[in-house]
Amino acid sequence: MKVSDLLVKCLEAEGVKYVFGLPGEENEDLLFSLADSQIQFVPCRHEQGAAFMADVWGRLSGAPGVCLSTLGPGATNLITGLADAHLDKSPVVALTAQGGLERLQHESHQLIDIVNMFRPITKWTAAVPTPEVVPEMVRKAFKLAQAEKPGVTHIELSEDVAAEDARVNNVPLRPHPVREPAPDRKAVDQAFSLIMEAERPLIIAGNGAIRDRASRYLARLVQTHGIATVSTFMGKGAISDRLDQSLLAIGLGFKDYVLEAVEQADLIVTVGYDIAEYPPQKWNPNGRARIVHIDFAPAEVYMHYQPEVEVVGDISGALHALDQRLMEADRRYQRDWYAPIRARILGDIAGYELGPDEAFTIPGALNIMREVMDDDSLLLSDTGSHKMWIARNFPTYRPNGTVISNGLATMGIALPGAVAAALVDPNRQVVAAMGDGGFLMNSQELETAKRLGVNFTAVVFNDFDYGLISWKQEMSKHRSVATRLGNPDFKAYAESFGIKGYRPETLDELREQLAQAIQSRELSVIEIRVSAQVNNELVDKLAKYWEGKTS
Ligand SMILES: Cc1ncc(C[n+]2csc(CCOP(=O)(O)OP(=O)(O)O)c2C)c(N)n1
């Protein structure tokens, strides 16, 4: 047995189903070993796409997604996807090839120091020095990638090591689940006392609340005791937005209605909150909020985030313990302070309904999408103005019902992400929503999707512009530069891949074609030409609202 065979056997032992990647000369042995295994290698059209697929696989399934590249340019192309998994806390194992050991000490063709290049975006990165250690290295890569907080690990395999004999008695190590430690009892006591004393506690549910599958405990806690809850962009769906306690999402760069709840709250309880996603000064500008921090890891040291108590450990366990204590105390909170805020947020979303003669808008189209999509469906957002609207205006009814990259906040993730999402659960409605900018960054993966036979709908909001950048420039400089784009005919472009393409022109067509595309679950692209006027109108509307409050 060769080392590459052994490495693949170790991947099989980890339960890996797919490896996303690109071939190269130096990973040839690994590719042949994969071809003879239970694992399906998915050839992608760009290593970035492969890394995003592994990233979204990890985020949705909880098990590490695996991507593979060759040395040099293949590895440099992986970086954006790996960086996304790193900052979004998604478990990913990256495998890269390398030149033979005899040429690593001098300048050589396509040779880049990949291990060191990946260091800032990985939890662990190492090259296989000798065949004996392959089982330990693979087990370690998977264990560390998955351990809280999850992230990226990397194994480099030189082409000559890959082809070596793996030696006898070298068998995969068996994975075993590792449970997170329960939080300290004194910390739970302190948190309980603070929550008991509060009259208007508010939970901010973040990325960790989704990862830990803590949403069941969170929903019970907030429903039983009537605690108002907002989610970050990545925490969307931690509790269903149908619950009266949900005030939907927080995280817009400027002051949205939901911030009123943060201002009125007398205690903020963060659950699995990642600072990389949303800086605390946005919701705690004067640093005066009283904070309880519940997370797998202690809080970052941060001027605007100084919790009075940190409940560190298993999030579900912490929420369950707090629920029990509050039940014993029969503590319930009034809803009247936050019910009007929820009503305002929902009323605002409904107000974006499109009229028959109006230009299409992103929030208007999102309202139709929400109607035609199942409660159980998945909307993956790319990065741009549409992400702000999705976060703010797309109610989500289950954990991972909306997937947003908000740590790295990268463009180009949604389409490859949808390929992985459709593989994770082939029975789910999957929709990838993008701007015209983000779509053309990774649209080549439509061919991967078509070849694999996976199904999803790619919704392209076309404003012929890097819209979010214009929006921000107009806010700061009252004009925009360097953002205008020309585009191909997206419908014809989709059809050139052998995929159904739509471009609705009227409101009736928009409704019919969105319903048709999403509900048929056929792989398709729907281009929606949108007016961006709503962006500046939102800024003006919110500014007026806050002025009205202070005057
Ligand atoms: C890979 C990457 N490059 C650049 C940016 C900066 N950026 C953020 S949003 C944006 C514009 C997105 O435009 P588009 O995809 O058309 O979406 P829209 O804003 O129009 O909805 C840019 C350039 C980024 N986040 N990621």
Helix content class:
40-55%
Assembly category = single chain
Gyration radius over CA:
24 Å
Please describe the biggest sheet, giving its number of strands, its sense, and whether it closes into a barrel. Answer: 6 strands, parallel
Mean pLDDT, rounded to whole units? Answer: 96
The rough form would be described as globular
Order of strands in the sheet with most strands: 2-1-3-4-6-5
Q: Which segments are poorly predicted (pLDDT under 50) over 5 or more consecutive residues?
A: none
Q: Report the β-strand fraction as a percent range.
A: 15-25%
Give the N-to-C terminal Cα separation.
Answer: 77 Å
Bound molecules: thiamine diphosphate
Number of helical segments with 4 or more residues: 22
**What is the SS-derived class?**
alpha/beta
Give the strand tally: 18
Task: Explain what you see.
Helix content is 42%, strand content 16%. It contains 22 helices and 18 strands. The strands form 3 sheets. It has a 6-stranded parallel β-sheet, with helices on both faces. It has a 6-stranded parallel β-sheet with strand order 9-8-7-10-11-12. Strands 14-13-15-16-18-17 form a 6-stranded parallel β-sheet, with helices on both faces. β3, α4 and β4 form a beta-alpha-beta unit. α8 crosses α12 and α14 packs across α15. The longest helix has 18 residues. The protein is globular, with a radius of gyration of 24 Å. Thiamine diphosphate binds next to α15, α17 and α19.
